[in-house]
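Quick one, tokens below:
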């Protein structure tokens, strides 16, 4: 603890140079005082969980641990199995509970109960207690469990159905029944020696025969063998669940182990049957059973035992993108100047001010890169000033402030910032969204001012503990408030008081928060917080790719036609937002803020192209009326050329100071950041998740096979970063290896290796297409130079098309590689190619034959014949470099065709293809035809 000064009012708690209040600020809204819990709950109550409504209401709203769903009512616990009732359409993947099925389980000793309270909880299980005099029900249930376990006093289990269930196994004298209600199959497990009454009616009662335990299970089918298997584990009740994670920096693996503790009510069986979500079973070596359940998150696969482990790759984050873009530095500096001249007039609540802080944290490194030390200092000073204002609860006179402070509610164990917004106070909503911006901005200051970080860090870390405490024994906060370790993602609503369960809309703002933890931990040397952030980032990234984006196209049901789930709910996946139906914002809410912590968005460019195409269709074209800067940035992932074209066409009408609804950038974004991102991706390509590093702040970009290795060193001594492909880079202290403003390139004087395997992949009357094998370099190859008689051509990747050539002419080509320091390799072996005679020409590759044939004075036909039958072929073309067209070609026999109209003599048509081949999608090089 650092010494503190200037703390005065009663209830102010100093932390370093900052403080928080234990007294509610005047006029501020607080959280309800009532928490529905029993005396068995002694730690801080979790909020923002799938089961949170149980703690906030007398009973509960719908809860969706999957594969089951349940709701607590005055007469007991209603249980529903959505598995075979899930539907899908343009609005949602719909799997919520209905109002009458499947059954309610109560207690024969009491028809009703005054409430249901939280009696116990663990990492993904919860126990609810119903109590009325001497009659009680304790129900324990959780994520992935087909079982619900019950303990009774003062009565027997009574199961009430809307219509009589079909009993297909067992009878009145059996302890175990197999039943089906409206197509849903269940096993009902009474204690050995118990009997049943009411078979053939709407009510079934299990006469416990002096015992106090009972359980049910949702079955994947109604076969006797399945019932026997589930009966084997029915009396092994789950009593505790615990998740443990570890980050291994040497291989960038995040390993997560999920452990069950069970108690045998009969016999000696240990372990349980559990169902894994897609993000879990895709990343585990656990032996799986044949049983599966459908869920709104996709197929859940089952396993048996006391634990399972997943292993995922952490793919790295950066404090900023490096200075590698194809942008004009003067233009970029002009955008920085515009931001420097602005005075902030936006909101002062924790969300909107947080977005301001996030914007400044992105601008400051860009200002460094253009050499504008005045602007970067101004941006960082504003961050410091605003953070210091919020991170101290007393004013200059030592009095409690009424706003711009944090208050600690000891009842719920939560830190609340005022002014609050979106229910962050009374409902404890969205703390990871709001505070994530503060933490990421603080990390940018810690990167450049470690003295400030030491002084104000204790308050920054209090914010981290509020939304993601890493300590189960934290006396102030619950464990991982906003993050669900089994579901693999965060939840937004503190109370979850919705019959569709809890929800999370902006997955990208959650990722922004976890990026902040990683950067803060790395900047301050706190590996506990850093590794926590890496676990959260990696796990949520995998969940986003499956449940929001479905990047592999194997999670969302076929009936769900949108390209993205924009809001994940317990009982559904929805295509919409809380605040608008505008397509740009419906899509963009899961992109923003786009920063160097957003590299995961670039891992699947084919999906990004699909998602962008859906946005264009929903919007009726590319006339964007909101968040167009974000759209351009997202477009750069799949088509940087189109992104640059849209940016250049639209940026002139975008006023830096204008509101986002009046043509300005998205509130947390800037023209400078959009320009910087688009042109960096244009130069380097997308982040390559197949190559990781032994440093968390490193990434590899890949453009057509050319890799750019980027690493940032937060320490005060130079270090070497090793990538998983064997590449090593030397990184100076507090710098990028590739240069970032005041950083340096490390004095690289080693040239790349000479390119080999130069070949021609196609030709026309006016162009030759070339490809070659990638060169290697001690730091990273940044591009290639093609040399030929008549000129040179710079190429970012390992293929290019040289255009503007003469027909029926022999050309000799060589290629050199270039690295970040400007070192050039030797020239490759030469290849000589003779262009076609005037006319359409053609190209033949192992995948296809393609070309253009002139039909008449105004028409030409583009043809594509795949070697392997293609499900689709799209052609993209520009006439004289303008008005790009994207067209699904028409299949004629084995050839796909498209006719270009309205051509005139001498016009150049540049074109390329996107085609399907045995499942994956591929893009061809660009070719040129002169009409």
């Amino acid at each position: 603890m650092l010494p503190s000064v200037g703390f005065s009012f009663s209830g102010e708690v100093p932390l370093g140079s900052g403080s928080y209040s234990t007294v509610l600020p005047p006029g501020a809204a607080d959280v309800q005082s009532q928490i529905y819990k029993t005396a068995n709950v002694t730690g801080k109550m979790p909020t923002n969980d799938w089961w949170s409504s149980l703690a906030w209401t007398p009973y509960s709203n719908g809860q969706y641990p999957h594969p089951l769903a349940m709701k607590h009512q005055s007469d007991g616990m209603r249980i529903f199995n959505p598995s075979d009732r899930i539907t899908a359409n343009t609005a949602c993947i719909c799997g919520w509970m209905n109002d009458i099925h499947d059954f309610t389980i109560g207690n024969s000793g009491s028809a009703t109960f005054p409430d249901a309270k939280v009696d116990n909880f663990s990492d993904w299980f919860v126990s609810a207690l119903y109590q009325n005099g001497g009659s009680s029900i304790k129900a324990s249930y959780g994520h992935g469990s087909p079982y619900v376990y019950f303990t009774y006093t003062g009565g027997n289990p009574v199961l009430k159905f809307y219509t009589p269930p079909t009993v297909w196994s067992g009878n009145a004298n059996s302890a175990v029944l197999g039943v089906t209600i409206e197509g849903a199959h269940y096993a009902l497990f009474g204690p050995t020696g118990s009997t049943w009454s009411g078979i053939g009616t709407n009510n079934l009662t299990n006469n416990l025969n002096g015992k106090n335990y009972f359980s049910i299970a949702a079955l994947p089918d109604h076969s006797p063998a399945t019932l026997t298997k589930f009966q084997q584990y029915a009396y092994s009740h789950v009593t505790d669940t615990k998740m443990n994670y570890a980050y291994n920096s040497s291989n960038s693996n995040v390993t997560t182990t999920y452990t069950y503790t069970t108690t045998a009510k009969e016999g000696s069986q240990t372990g349980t049957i559990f169902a894994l979500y897609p993000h879990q079973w895709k990343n585990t070596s656990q032996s799986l059973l044949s049983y599966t359940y459908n869920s709104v998150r996709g197929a859940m696969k089952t396993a048996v035992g006391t634990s399972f482990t997943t292993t995922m790759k952490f793919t790295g984050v950066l404090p900023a993108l490096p200075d590698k873009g194809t942008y004009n530095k003067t233009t970029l500096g002009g955008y920085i100047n515009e931001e420097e001249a602005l005075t902030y007039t936006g909101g002062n609540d924790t969300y909107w001010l947080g977005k301001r802080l996030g914007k400044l944290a992105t601008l400051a490194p860009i200002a460094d890169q253009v050499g504008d030390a005045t602007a970067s200092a101004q941006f960082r000073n504003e961050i410091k000033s605003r953070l210091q204002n919020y991170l101290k609860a007393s004013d200059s006179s030592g009095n409690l402030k009424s706003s711009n402070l944090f208050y600690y509610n000891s009842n719920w164990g939560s830190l609340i910032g005022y002014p609050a917004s979106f229910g962050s106070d009374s409902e404890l909503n969205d703390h990871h969204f709001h505070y994530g911006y503060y933490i990421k901005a603080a990390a940018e200051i810690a990167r450049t001012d470690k003295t400030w970080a030491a002084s104000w860090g204790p308050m920054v870390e209090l914010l981290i503990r509020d939304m993601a405490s890493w300590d189960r024994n934290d006396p102030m906060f619950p464990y991982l408030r906003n993050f669900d370790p089994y579901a693999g993602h965060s939840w937004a609503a503190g109370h979850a008081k919705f019959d569709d369960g809890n929800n999370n809309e902006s997955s990208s703002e959650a990722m922004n928060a976890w990026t902040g933890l990683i950067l803060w931990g790395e900047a301050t040397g706190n590996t506990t917080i850093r590794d926590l952030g890496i676990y959260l980032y990696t796990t949520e990234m995998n969940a986003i790719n499956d449940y929001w984006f479905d990047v592999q196209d194997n999670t969302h049901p076929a009936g769900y036609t949108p390209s993205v789930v924009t809001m994940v709910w317990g009982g559904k996946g929805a295509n919409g937002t809380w605040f608008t139906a505008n397509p740009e914002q419906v899509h963009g809410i899961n992109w923003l803020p786009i920063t160097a912590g957003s590299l995961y968005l670039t891992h699947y460019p084919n999906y990004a192209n699909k998602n962008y195409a859906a946005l264009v269709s929903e919007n009726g074209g590319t006339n964007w009326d909101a968040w167009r800067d974000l759209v351009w940035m997202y477009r750069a992932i799949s088509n940087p050329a189109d992104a640059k074209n849209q940016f250049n066409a639209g940026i002139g009408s975008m006023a830096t100071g204008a509101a986002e609804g009046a043509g300005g950038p998205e509130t947390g974004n800037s023209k400078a950041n959009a320009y910087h991102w688009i042109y960096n991706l244009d130069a380097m390509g997308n982040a390559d998740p197949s190559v990781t590093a032994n440093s968390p702040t490193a990434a590899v970009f890949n453009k057509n096979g050319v890799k750019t290795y980027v690493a940032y060193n937060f320490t005060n001594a130079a270090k070497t970063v090793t990538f998983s492909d064997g590449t090593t880079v030397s990184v100076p202290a507090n710098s990028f290896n590739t240069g970032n403003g005041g950083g340096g390139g490390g004095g690289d004087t080693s040239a790349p290796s000479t390119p080999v395997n130069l070949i021609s992949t196609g030709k026309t009357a006016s162009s030759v297409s070339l490809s070659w094998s990638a060169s290697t370099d001690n730091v990273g190859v940044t591009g290639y130079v093609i040399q030929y008689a008549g000129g040179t051509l710079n190429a970012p990747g390992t293929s290019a098309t040289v255009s503007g050539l003469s027909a029926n002419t022999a050309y000799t080509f060589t290629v050199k590689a270039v690295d970040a320091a400007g070192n050039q390799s030797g020239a490759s072996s030469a290849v000589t190619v003779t262009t076609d005679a005037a006319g359409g020409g053609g190209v033949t590759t192992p995948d296809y034959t393609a070309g253009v044939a002139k039909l008449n004075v105004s028409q030409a036909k583009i043809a594509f014949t795949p070697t392997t039958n293609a499900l689709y072929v799209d052609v993209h073309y520009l006439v004289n470099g303008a008005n790009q067209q994207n067209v699904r070609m028409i299949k004629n026999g084995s050839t796909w065709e498209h006719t270009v109209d309205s051509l005139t003599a001498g016009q150049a048509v540049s074109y390329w293809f996107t085609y399907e081949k045995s499942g994956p999608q591929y893009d061809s090089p660009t070719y040129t035809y002169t009409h």
